[in-house]
Structure formats: C-alpha cells, structure tokens
Records
---
Amino acid sequence: MMQVRITDQPIDPAAETVALTRGRSDVGALVAFSGICRDSEDSGKITSLTLEHYPGMAEAEISRHIEEAKARWPLLGARIVHRVGRIVPGEVIVFAACTSKHRMAAFEAAEFLMDFLKTRAPFWKKVESAGAENWVEAKEKDDNAAARWERGAKRKAAE
C-alpha cells in the first residue's frame, strides 16, 4: 500500500504505522521516521513553524518519488503524512515509513524519501521566533544528502 496524505491535523505515528502494516504477514521490516518541530535552531528559539504547500502538486510530487523508491527497492508499502499550517514545538511535522521483506530496502527507501521531502517537495516553511518571522531557505547539507541519490541513479544507469 502506497499512500500520501497532507493534513492540517496532528499526526499520530503509532496509528500510521498500524495502518501501514494491518493485515500484512509478508512484511519483514518497517522503517518509520517522524520529524518533530523542535524549539530551537541556529538562529534562536522557535515559537512555531508555518508550512504551506501547493495542493495537488505536493501530493503528485511525493507520489512520484514513492514510485521512484518502489523502482529502486522492493517495497511492500510506503506512507507519507505531512503537516501544513501552524505547528508548535513538540508536534510531528512529517511521518514517513517504508515496508519491505528485508530491512536494508526499508531503511534506504525511507532515507531516500526523507531526503526528497527535505529538499525538493513543494513545501514552504516559515519560522517564528522572538517576534520575527523568516522563510527557511534550503540548506547545503540537505542538498548534498539528496544529491547522493542522483549520483546513485546515474551510476546504476551506467552499469
């Protein structure tokens, strides 16, 4: 089962995990990641994040990357749930999980999907701290993490 959901409601990682594995006896590995809003960043204390997205386009792009993950790894399932709207420290921003018969495929696919979400998914994040608001720019370390998957795809195609 492959599913993408964008919501302005709180995310329950335990419920999402159960939904992904319910009735499945062929799953040998489940790797799940929950991104949580923290209260500080290099620039100081965070009071909230506001995430915006391009409805329809965001779901389509995430689904496309899930399909790419399925082509790279033998996945049995993938589930991504992403919050939008105002999020305060301690709340889950994103839940991403992959299932497979074996752990390595689930680990790598989950990491691939999170690297995409962090760098290329059509979301915009504004950080509010100490009365100031700033839109967050992409970070070089995140771009470098995502670039390794592109190098891997090019290497595989050349083989």
---
Amino acid sequence: MPFCGNFSLKLSSRTLIQHTIFMSTREKINQVYEEMSKVVVGQRDLTNRLLIGLFTGGHILLEGVPGLAKTLTINTLAKVLELDFHRIQFTPDLLPADLVGTMIYNPKTNDFEVKKGPIFSNLILADEINRAPAKVQSALLEAMQEKQVTIGDTTFQLDRPFLVLATQNPVEQEGTFPLPEAQVDRFMLKVHIDYLNKEDELEVMRRMSNMDFNYKPKAILNKKDLLTIKDEVNKITISETLEKYIIELIFATRKPADYGLKDEARYVQFGASPRAGISLNLAAKVLAYLDERDYVLPEDIKEIAPDVLNHRMMLNYEAEADGITTIQVIDTILRKVAIGR
C-alpha cells in the first residue's frame, strides 16, 4: 500500500527528511522479516507480534504446544536486532533470586557484591511461566511493569528495550501455578501459535534434517534504530472516531447487553480493563506503521483486537459448558459493534 496521509505532495524540506528516514527504516524492517525467514519457517505473525511489543514497550504471553520454534524465533530476532537474549526455564523450585539476582559475600573484600540475574537482558523468554510459584511470577511481573529491579538496597534500571515473551503450555496443566487474571492483564498481547501448514512443515523437516545447516543471521537493526522507530510510531495518527470505536469495543466486553449482544451477555463474567484500550491503540499504530501508513485504519484495530482482548476477558461456567470461547465472543463483538456508534 502506498504511503499517504499527512505526507502530501507538497513536502517541506524537514518533512521530506523525515519521510526519507521513515522509508529507510521501513526498508530495514522488510530486511528483518527476510532475515528471519532464513532461519525460522512460517512464523511471520509471531515475528510481527514481537515487533509490536518491542516498538511499544509491551510484553507478550504466548500459548502453543512445544516444537513451534518459539525459542528459535525470539533468539533469532535478538541476533537480527543486536539485542541481548536470555531464556529462563520456569520450574517449581525456581526462586526470585534465580531470576533477578542476589547479594553474594566476597571474602576478599569482606563485603557483599551484587550478582545480577538473567532478567538483565533486552529479550527474555520466560518458558512455561505457569510452572513457577507465585513469588517468582510476581518478581518477573514487577520487573515488567516497573522496568527496574531492586537487589538489597540498590535499585537497577533495566536496559531498553526490554521485552518479556512468556510461554504457557496449553496441554499439560499438572503441577502448574496459573497466572492470576490481574497479572495476566499486564501482558499487552496474548498470542496463540498453531501448527504450521503442510508446506511450511515440509520445509522445516528438510532444513532441520540437514545437519550442516548453521546459518547465522545478520544484524539489521540496533538499539538506536529501535528508539527511532518508537518515535515514528508515536507520530502515527488515529482519528477521534477510531479512538471512540476502541472505547466502544472495550465497553462491549464489559456490558454486551447494552450493545444488543444478549447471548454473549450470558457468558461474560468480567470484561477488558482500561489497559486493553491503551494496548489496542498502540498496537494498531504499529500495524499502520508496518503497513507503511501514518494513520490507523479500522482494519488495524480489528486485526489486533483478538490478541489484545482474549486474555483480558473472563467467561463464566455457563460458557465453558456450552463450549463458548473468548475468541468467539470477541469475533461477535467486532462484527456487531459499529464504528461511529
């Protein structure tokens, strides 16, 4: 889609420079997708969601069965963006100190020294976060929210950008500690990853069966570029009509009956929080940016809404008994709630 909106034919010299920088950065983002595809097969949507989190400072909760290249995707993205990466396997015996760090006594200096934990990275993969007890989950979520960690009497700021990709296994629930709804709400997106199609899975099999395959992805962007992109995303415009549309969607999740959704009203126990509106606004701007536009379209909001809302709504037991899912309710809301209502 051609770039349009505020960038008219009569560009001032300053605007022309901004437009040139924008197009240069957009070309690099295309190169990021291309470089990722050389290592990871068929996970463009996951890469897209990771970029949304990086460009907005949001975190992502990922749900999918094992073997779908979640670790490979985020590890490869870290290399392409020249960012530090740590994978943390959450287990029942994990302690908060294993995550954030602790004070260690040094007999040579007769004093305590700070040993930082793996949380001090740009990209964190919290693998199977629901296998760790609540105190460990809280330590991670506090770092996510405050972007800082306190060890002893010293508070350390985490490096920017800082993105947590937490995974949950939807199959095995034995010995897990489910995240409370209030903590889940702190994730910007909840993304469900499904199996690859036949063609992509065939390519994965061929590629991974070649024991000589050892492609090292090239660095395309760096931290400075990410800060520039974040500023550019912040300049994306969204009309007042679409801002109000976002609010209507959020309120429709809370009181479906007010929007003529009587069937859905029977199933909804809690609707989306105010964080949902903020996340939906920011994510829609990134989608517009990735589509080379400086303005948000209704399609941007509708595309990202399921990922923003699906973990922020709670359905009751009646919905479970009738086989109704959160995604089905959100789909109905998106079809029924009109823009400019």
